[in-house]
Amino acid sequence: MGEYSIPVLTGNHAETTREDTDVGSKMSELLLTPGSGADVGLMAQALDRYSRIADIWASRVRSVELLRRLLSLGEPLHSQACGVLVANYYGQEDCLMTVAEDATESNANREWAKREFKEKLAERQLVLEDLKDPAQLRYQDRAGDSRHRLREELETLLFNPDPTLHERSCRALARYFPWHPESKCP
Question: Could you write out the three-class secondary structure of the chain?
């Protein structure tokens, strides 16, 4: 009937008993955080699949948060996490310049990051333009017909350190979700 288990390639994780976290968030953290004895090469290869699972079990916001944590680790997790962020989530291209400017990265990774960043500039500009007036249906179409998904998409943009993107995302969140203020926004 189908696959009922997911191989976990992230090593051993300490057992947690935190009551304040739901099961989906815990499972997402397990999949997107290296534990002791993790085979980081295999884990890096599974990041795209794991992030898609985490999107469902927890949220796209949680997936972005966990993937961005991996950016502080070495290869191969660093560039692979950046690749997944850029491919699957709007507004996460800032990690590409970090990879491109990192002298410890391989030349292939650095060149890939520079090319990818140039390609993403047009998409980034569209996102910024769409957020000028969040009422544009074009931006809402990115989230499909789900208000929940629209909120997640706007919240993921807040991880990018760009102040313009942050301000416009906050404005859109305040406009569409005034009853639920975002803690990352002024």
Answer: CCCCCCCCCCCECCCCCCCCCCHHHHHHHHHCCCCECCCHHHHHHHHHHHHHHHHHHCCHHHHHHHHHHHCCCCCCHHHHHHHHHHHHCCCCCHHHHHHHHCCCCCHHHHHHHHHHHHHHHHHHHHHHHHHHCCCCHHHHHCCCCCHHHHHHHHHHHCCCCCHHHHHHHHHHHHHHCCCCCCCCCC
CA–chain centroid gap for 175, Å, is 23
d(CA 90, CA 12): 31
User: Residue 89 CB: number of other CB atoms within 10 A?
Assistant: 23
Contact 113, 93 (CB under 8 A): no
pLDDT in tens, 115-163: 999 998 888 888 888 888 766 645 555 555 677 888 888 999 999 999 9
Give how far Cα 110 sits from Cα of 5, 23, 67, 70, 96, Å. Answer: 36, 37, 19, 17, 8
11 sits in the region (left: phi over 0; alpha: psi -120 to 50; else beta) called left
Global pTM value: 0.83
